[in-house]
UniProtKB/TrEMBL annotation, chain A:
Biological process according to GO: peptide transport; protein transport; transmembrane transport
Superkingdom of origin organism: Bacteria
Keyword Glycosyltransferase included in the entry's annotation: no
SUPFAM superfamilies in the cross-refs: MetI-like
Name of the protein this chain belongs to: Peptide/nickel transport system permease protein
Keyword entries, A-Z: Cell membrane, Membrane, Peptide transport, Protein transport, Transmembrane, Transmembrane helix, Transport
Family: Belongs to the binding-protein-dependent transport system permease family.
Natural source organism: Shinella granuli
InterPro entries: BP-dependent_transpt_permease (IPR050366), MetI-like (IPR000515), MetI-like_sf (IPR035906), OppC_N (IPR025966)
Transmembrane segments: 12-34, 82-105, 117-136, 142-161, 199-224, 244-266
Topology with respect to the bilayer: Multi-pass membrane protein
From TrEMBL, chain B:
Matches recorded under PANTHER family: GLUTATHIONE IMPORT ATP-BINDING PROTEIN GSIA (PTHR43776:SF15), TRANSPORT ATP-BINDING PROTEIN (PTHR43776)
Membrane topology qualifier: Peripheral membrane protein
Quaternary structure note: The complex is composed of two ATP-binding proteins (GsiA), two transmembrane proteins (GsiC and GsiD) and a solute-binding protein (GsiB).
Pfam families the UniProt entry points to: ABC_tran, oligo_HPY
GO cellular component: plasma membrane
EC number: 7.4.2.10
Gene Ontology molecular-function annotations: ATP binding; ATP hydrolysis activity
Record keywords: ATP-binding, Cell inner membrane, Cell membrane, Hydrolase, Membrane, Nucleotide-binding, Repeat, Translocase, Transport
Keyword Repeat set for record: yes
Designated name of the protein: Glutathione import ATP-binding protein GsiA
Top-rank taxon, per record: Bacteria
Length: 282, 558
């Protein structure tokens, strides 16, 4: 409750919160909000020459090359992209935290092995790995989310590892050990809370990256399968029409940008609010 | 020495500086005025936050503009106001007319440039007439600060030199342009006491040789006594008292000055007694039982080798240390940096792997894992040097003090809460402190919190590692008194680790002097301090600055 109240005191955070809520509502209420079915290829949706319709009265944001309503596709696409952005990214941050903290805290050969494996994953082309994984497993929304998580945890692990190593050297961890605290308590109560800012920043920054990675996978035909819309595959399906029908790229692009920005703003505000050393200042 | 009549080289008039805070401007320097005569040494003395460093930065034009702002005043170098003059003109003055040396000689030198290159650069910056001779001047300056093998030193990098040598290089650089004023901001605080004595002697010598005026900033009244012709005592952004060093030390007029001088621990103040002063009526513990017995303790760092790490064989940091500490007594472990005293403290509490035998309250701790060690940790606790670093910044003070109780499963939530409140009262903190965070407290208060946390389990032994080194003198005296009181009331034994001879003298029953990882002398305090057997112990004691300027004046004129 306190967190929410303090969030509401920062205009930027409120702006972000409103957009995040709007996207969530759009995703949930898509069937009621959308004027058309997302995969309905309408005859009226194309001009006489067969080109997509620009934004107008019947189609608020215009139509795509198959005569489908862009607004409806964006609303339904919010479902896919939110799931990808939150789940894939959440899992990636969780794996990264686990690997980074374990390796950074244990050091020794366990930590060494874990970090060398992380380096290996980092050196391995992420897209190739995603293609291989997606080809082995049958592509579906959840599989795509998992593939993205398995590719994206690496950077988080690397950063968390470095931070953990620094934390473990600090006096208050030594003081905890002198008090007789076990490893589990030290990690859960004294190391993890200090990694919350990193996790939040990565969690929010990563949303844009994952949405775009999903788009790339879709483009290669191993992402979310058409006709199911996602913000990424809407852009990629229409990129060759960019000059003739700029709205097909502009609107989904703007939606991705705004969503990513909104999550970032909320994340930044959350990080400050959750940091007790910032309390009573400024 | 009495050049007060001559026109001052540097004159500060009514200098006020404001800090920009979210609540608006806050005055941190309030109408500071002083004069520095030619060839004179003026010490600005005060505790942390008194504004002494801000004053020196203002003179150098180095105030961080984003957070601090000069609101009024004048700084005159000879006859010219240098406050607020353009950057180009200021650069000529900085390093040319006014030079500065800092506390930390390692971070003030560029680690990727040789000593010679850095000195030549500094010399060329201000003496355009010299292009060929800069190297020669650099060498002559190193000779002047008594660096042996000057030609070789010029080719070395800062990390190849010791702390004392680096500070000599800094002084050589500062004096190479023959400045009129040398500002020295805590120049010896980071150095060992024997090195400090050498650097102070050097500065006195150079002042005469180069006829430079010195503005010295320090918190250490011993250093003030050794260096100052005149003293200005600062408190909360004002100069509360200024005058001749002899007068101020002999007849301090202001209550704050008196309090400051009284708080300075003096070596030899407890001569003729066997133990620390008694502060309470509590009876001395009768049992002569050893609480800590250490035998042939050795610690070697970096011997561990992993799959992916290169193995390194390092020499032992601590070797063959043996001592016994009885309940209710204090063993002072004294030595300079790198002597292995902190390592010994950590090994005693099994926080680092060691060889040999450590037995606490009759239990051998070597090789005990975290869980097996837990009962021993109820008996033996630690207080660290930096109270802020040793408290988790994301935890309230109450939670931090309750932490040992939770770890050892003592009491339920409400019992713990009562216990925390009682502990806070015990160390002289308000009970509502429990719900606040460490950053909201001052250094002395934080150390009280750390003491409360260490006391939570009612231990019998406390290892105090430089526990008052980070505190101001007046705060330090009160924390030491608190520790003595607790010892008398609770029968605590302290392993008291410090580099400060005067603090060790005040606190200890027995003293062990360490050097290079070994104990060179150990015995009852009275014997070690009043009749030191080892030459190193005698050196260490002779190097401690004594807060009595009269002694130095006599020594210098004699």
């Amino acid at each position: 409750m306190r967190v929410l109240k303090e969030l509401c005191r920062q205009p930027a955070a409120v702006f972000g919160l409103v957009i995040v809520l709007a996207v969530v509502i759009a995703a949930i209420a898509a069937p009621w909000l959308a004027p058309y079915a997302p995969d309905n290829q309408m005859f009226e949706g194309l001009t006489l020459e067969g080109a997509p319709m620009p934004p107008g009265e019947d189609f608020l944001l215009g139509t795509d090359t198959l005569g489908r309503d862009l607004l409806s596709r964006l609303l339904y696409g919010a479902r896919t992209s939110l799931i990808i952005g939150l789940v894939a990214n959440g899992v990636a941050v969780a794996i990264g935290l686990f690997v980074g903290v374990t390796a950074g805290y244990m050091r020794g050969w366990v930590g060494g092995t874990m970090m060398r494996f992380t380096d290996l994953m980092m050196a391995f082309p992420a897209l190739l790995l995603a293609i291989v994984l997606a080809a082995i497993l049958k592509p579906s929304l959840w599989i795509v989310a998992m593939v993205i998580a398995l590719v994206n945890w690496v950077q988080v692990a690397r950063i968390v590892y470095t931070e953990t190593r620094g934390l473990v050297e600090r006096d208050f961890i030594m003081a905890e050990r002198a008090l007789g605290a076990g490893n589990a308590r030290i990690v859960l109560r004294h190391v993890l809370p200090h990694l919350v800012p990193t996790a939040i920043v990565w969690g929010t920054l990563g949303i844009a990256t994952t949405v775009l990675l999903e788009a790339t996978l879709s483009f290669l035909g191993i992402g979310v399968q058409p006709p199911e819309p996602s913000w990424g595959n809407i852009i990629f399906e229409s990129q060759s029409y960019f000059q003739a029908a700029p709205w097909l790229v502009f609107f989904p692009g703007a939606v991705i940008l705004l969503t990513a920005l909104a999550f970032n703003l909320v994340g930044d505000a959350l990080r400050d609010i959750l940091d007790p050393t910032q309390r009573g200042r400024g | 020495m009495t050049s007060h009549q001559a026109a001052p080289v540097l004159s500060v008039r009514n200098l006020s500086v404001d800090a920009r805070t979210p609540e608006g401007l806050k005055r941190i320097l309030d109408g500071v005025s002083f004069d520095l005569a030619a060839g004179e040494t003026l010490c600005l003395a005060g505790e942390s936050g008194s504004g002494k460093s801000v004053t020196s930065l203002a003179i150098m034009g180095l105030l961080p503009k984003a957070s601090l702002k000069v609101s009024s005043g004048e700084i005159r170098l000879e006859d010219r106001n240098i406050l607020g003059i353009p950057h180009r003109a200021l650069r000529k003055i900085r390093g040319g007319d006014i030079a500065m040396i800092f506390q930390e000689p390692m971070t003030s030198l560029n680690p990727v440039m040789t000593i010679g290159d850095q000195m030549v650069e500094a010399i060329r910056e201000h003496r355009e007439d010299i292009s060929e001779g800069a190297q020669a001047i650099a060498r002559a300056m190193l000779d002047a600060v008594h660096m042996s093998e000057a030609p070789r030193r010029l080719k070395q990098y800062p990390h190849e030199l010791s702390g004392g040598m680096r500070q000599r290089v800094m002084i050589a650089m500062a004096l190479s342009c023959r400045p009129k004023v040398l500002i020295a901001d805590e120049p010896t605080t980071a150095l060992d006491v024997t090195v400090q004595a050498q650097i102070l002697t050097l500065m006195r010598e150079l002042r005469r040789e180069f006829s430079t005026s010195i503005l010295m900033i320090t918190h250490d009244m011993g250093v003030v006594a050794e260096m100052a012709d005149r003293v200005a005592i600062m408190q909360q952004g004002r100069i509360v008292e200024a005058g001749d060093a002899l007068d101020i030390f002999a007849r301090p007029a202001e209550p704050y000055t008196r309090q400051l001088l009284a708080a300075v621990p003096r070596l030899g103040a407890h001569a003729g007694t066997d133990g620390p002063p008694r502060l309470t009526q509590a009876e001395a513990p009768p049992a002569e039982r050893p609480i800590l017995a250490v035998k042939d303790l050795s610690v070697t760092y970096g011997a561990r080798a992993g799959w992916f790490n290169r193995s390194r064989i390092a020499p032992a940091t601590v070797s063959d240390i043996s001592f016994v500490l009885k309940a209710g007594e204090t063993l002072g472990l004294v030595g300079e940096s790198g002597s292995g005293k902190s390592t010994t403290g950590k090994a005693v509490l099994n926080l680092i792997p060691f060889e040999g035998s450590v037995s606490i309250d009759g239990r051998e701790t070597r090789g005990l894992k975290s869980a097996a060690m837990r009962p021993v940790r109820r008996v033996a606790q630690m207080i660290f040097q930096d109270p802020y670093a040793s408290l988790d910044p994301r935890m309230t003070v109450g939670a931090a003090i309750a932490e040992p109780l939770v770890i050892h499963g003592v009491g339920n939530a409400s019992e713990r809460q009562d216990r925390v409140a009682a502990l806070l009262r015990r160390v002289g903190m308000p009970p509502d402190a429990g719900s606040r965070y460490p950053h909201e407290f001052s250094g002395g208060q934080r150390q009280r919190i750390c003491i409360a946390r260490a006391l939570a389990l009612e231990p019998k032994l406390i290892v105090a590692d430089e526990s008052v080194a980070a505190l101001d003198v007046s705060v330090r005296a009160r924390v030491l008194d608190l520790m003595l009181e607790l010892q008398e009331q609770m029968g605590l034994a302290y392993l008291f680790i410090s580099h400060d001879m005067a603090v060790i003298e005040k606190m200890s029953h027995h003293v062990a002097v360490m050097r290079g990882g070994r104990i060179v002398e150990i015995g009852p305090r009275r014997q070690v301090f009043e009749a030191p057997a080892d030459a190193y112990t005698r050196n260490l004691m002779a190097a401690v600055p004594i807060p009595d300027p009269a002694r130095y004046r006599m020594a210098r004129s004699g």
